[in-house]
Design goal:
alpha/beta, 32% helix, 191 residues, Rossmann fold, six-stranded parallel sheet
């Protein structure tokens, strides 16, 4: 079983654009490409888990989402990086509280992580959830993940700390990658 880096997309890997629907607006957060390439090189599965209510709201189609992900993949490839799998939840929420599980697949529900673990034979206890919001952290918690890491990019820049759902805080994906590698057991340092 492989450890995984479960990554939120918006505000974690690519710049935050509210209800992103245009591939031309896809921009990697500085350092994210190199960080993901490093995880790829360590044989850590890189899995994006993303709430895409923009689909449920009728502002983007599934095909449009593929175009956005193709553009993200193209930009990552320029850094020698790739994403192993992307899981998205198209549900438009009725509940605003980011701590309430409205549907198992919509973060903070653990559904996407659990499905990926099953599909890809991943070791959840040696895996990390990285994101810029509390719902990302709780999705990791609810999946029984090894650690949750809040990045201070995207909404993470204005997160209220500390929070019991957050195990560690990283400036960005570059710093988060070092934590992921430790949890995965690839270096001697204990977390
Ligand atoms: Mg986000």
């Amino acid at each position: 079983m492989r450890p995984a880096a479960f990554l939120d997309r918006d505000g974690t890997v690519i710049e935050l654009v509210h209800h992103l629907a245009d591939p031309a607006l896809v921009r990697l957060i500085p350092g994210a490409g190199a960080a993901i390439a490093e995880l790829n090189a360590q044989d850590i599965a890189v899995v994006i888990v993303t709430n895409q209510s923009v689909i449920g709201r009728g502002k983007l189609t599934e095909a449009g989402l593929v175009d956005i992900h193709d553009e993200m993949a193209r930009q990552l490839a320029a850094h020698g990086a790739h994403i192993d799998a992307i899981y998205h939840c198209p549900l438009a929420p009725k509940i605003k509280d980011p701590r309430v599980v409205e549907h198992p697949d919509r973060k903070p529900g653990p559904g996407m992580l659990l499905r990926a673990a099953d599909d890809m034979d991943l070791a959840l206890d040696r895996s990390v959830m990285v994101g810029d919001t509390i719902s990302d952290m709780l999705a990791g918690r609810n999946a029984g993940i090894g650690a949750t890491v809040l990045v201070k990019t995207g909404y993470g820049a204005r997160a209220t700390l500390p929070d019991p759902a957050i195990d560690q805080v990283a400036e960005d994906m570059a710093e988060a990658a070092q934590i992921i590698e430790r949890i995965a057991g690839l270096t001697k340092d204990s977390v």
